[in-house]
Amino acid sequence: MSYSFIHDVPINEEMYAKIRAELGDIQPEGLIAHVVIRQPQGLRYVDVWKSQADWDRFHADQLEPVVGRVLGSYGITPDPSMAPIEQIDVIDTLLGAG
Q1: Cα distance between residue 85 and residue 40, in whole Å
Q2: Is residue 14 helix, strand or coil?
C-alpha cells in the first residue's frame, strides 16, 4: 500500500531550490510523485511513495541532512513540529510521459 502525504513547510522557493540542488538528480527509491505548490506561508509538498518505509529511509538518510545544512546556512534550526505531515489517501496517480 502506498504512503501519501501533504507537508506544509515554512520555507521559500530559494531555500527549496538549494535543497533540490544539493540532493542532485537522484530518483529516491520508492518515490512515485512529488509536487510542490507555492502558498502564502511557504510551500506545500504533496508526495506519493510506494511505502512509508521508502519515505522514512529517504527522509532520514538523504533529506534531513541536506535540509539541516541548507536551513542552517540561513541561521534556521529545523523544527519538525512547525511543519507536521498530514497523511492522505491517494486513490490513483497518473503521471505524464515527461
Answers
A1: 18
A2: helix
Q: What are phi and psi of 88, to 5 degrees?
A: -130, 160
- For the entire predicted model, the pTM comes to 0.91
Q: Where are the domains of the chain?
A: 3-88
Greater pLDDT, 3 or 79: 3
Query: Residue holding cell 507536521?
Result: 84
Structure letter (DSSP) for residue 38: E
Per DSSP, 80 falls in state G
**How is residue 79 written as a grid cell?**
523544527
13 vs 33: CA distance, rounded Å: 19
Angstrom distance (rounded) from CA 88 to CA 22:
28
| Domain 3-88, CATH | 3.30.70.100
- What is the chain's mean pLDDT, rounded? 95
Place of cell 502558498: 39
